[in-house]
Amino acid sequence: MPRPLVALAKWGKIYNPSYLYNTKDMSKEPIILSLETSLDDTCAAVTRGTSVLSNVVSSQTSYHASWGGTVPDIAKRLHHEWLPRVVDRALSQAGSPKLDALAVTIGPGLAPSLEQGIAYCKLLATKYQLPIIAVNHLEGHLLSSFATNKNGKGSSLARHSFSDGVALGFLISGGHTELVLMENIGGYELLGETLDDAAGEAYDKVARLLMLGYPGGPILAEMAKVGTPKYHLPEPMTMRKDLNFSFSGLKTAARQYLECEKPELTQEFVQDFSASFQKTVFKHLMTRFRRALDLYSPTMILLGGGVVSNVELRNLARATAKEYGLPVHFPYSKKLISDNAAMIGVVASFKYLRGEFSNPASLDRLPNLNFLKSSQLQ
Ligand code: KG4
Ligand code: ZN
To answer: Is pLDDT above 50 for 152?
Structure first.
């Protein structure tokens, strides 16, 4: 079986966007309209190379909140209704530039949601006679640190001097928790992943137990900031010396404590319990992170996914990497960290240069798309 995405060259050259695009000649950078509808955010963005010209996110959260989770039928209907308006807004905010290509998320995600983005992208491709680039949502999160604003200002990655060697991608979102070895852009190997719930999912589920609403992850994180981690919740999988994660046992331990002890959910208790939960999540994440650094000696770390909005987690990752003398990069704005279409445009810009276009006739959603493990690679 061939590698999932084409590995091109060494980091030093291929990983450096200015080398790729020869930034003095802006006309070489492809202008791409990207759509992202993998779950319950209807997103469209226009990018020029890795610069973000517009990035529109229309959140459906309030429509799903009363159900306590994303309802596929509602998500599908709202994506269908909202896509034309969101796309128009993204185009006009970008100054209605002449487009070179379209890009769309094909997975992973909720099938009815993905289908809406793909169908609308095909419609636009026919209307404007443009090629389509299919993008893996996970690669979007991993490469989101490459995004810059119109003036070229971006994350610390923009100031990074690239050298050969591998990078380590750490993807921590509501649907995924993964450590990914990045040989170069497009050459990825899945080192470890969650065996059950993702980290963000665990935040949301424990937040629900604490009556913090939906999605409660960010609220729990706010509570944790002022709490004292008084309660003991066991670190998952301490006996397993691999790079996989597990969060469902931790969620169960939290539920059992609340069911057995029946504490009054005072503000102080919720703050302290949130701090205890977060401390254990961080411990589990950092144990695996350190192990990956020891095993693979990367030259830099790229963080991505909604949980990376958590400033304490970013600080901890940075402090841990500093012990190894390594830089940690993450997107320059909160909007680029959670689900958005600009990160899809960033991936598409690299695929454009590699000539990786899709045949609209066979373009379809891949709800379970993932990177391949080394045992699956050739
Ligand atoms: O990447 P994302 O926007 O969507 C997925 O692709 O899953 O991640 C959303 C997840 C949610 O589970 C949310 O609770 C979590 O990210 N999240 C946080 C924080 N902000 C968002 N988790 C912990 N601390 C935060 N500050
Ligand atoms: Zn995501």
So the answer is: yes
Which token pair is 196?
A: 């059950």
Ligand 2 centroid distance, CA of 103 (Å): 16
| Neighbour tally for 228: CB within 10 Å | 12
For residue 374, what are the contacts with CB-CB under 8 A and spacing of at least 6?
189
Q: Output the pTM of the full model.
A: 0.93
| pLDDT digit string, tens, across residues 192-242 | 999 999 999 999 999 999 999 988 999 999 999 999 999 999 999 999 999
Helix (H, G, I), strand (E, B) or coil at 375: helix
Judge if the beta carbon of residue 173 lies within 6 A of ligand 1.
yes
C-alpha Rg value of the chain to the nearest Å: 20
Amino acid letter, 201: E
Q: Which residue has the tokens 């509570």?
A: 223
Mutate to test the pocket of ligand 1, among 309, 316, 330, 370 (most ligand atoms within 8 A of CB): 309
What's the N-to-C CA distance of the chain in angstroms? 6
Going by alpha carbons, the residue nearest to atom 18 of ligand 1 is 307
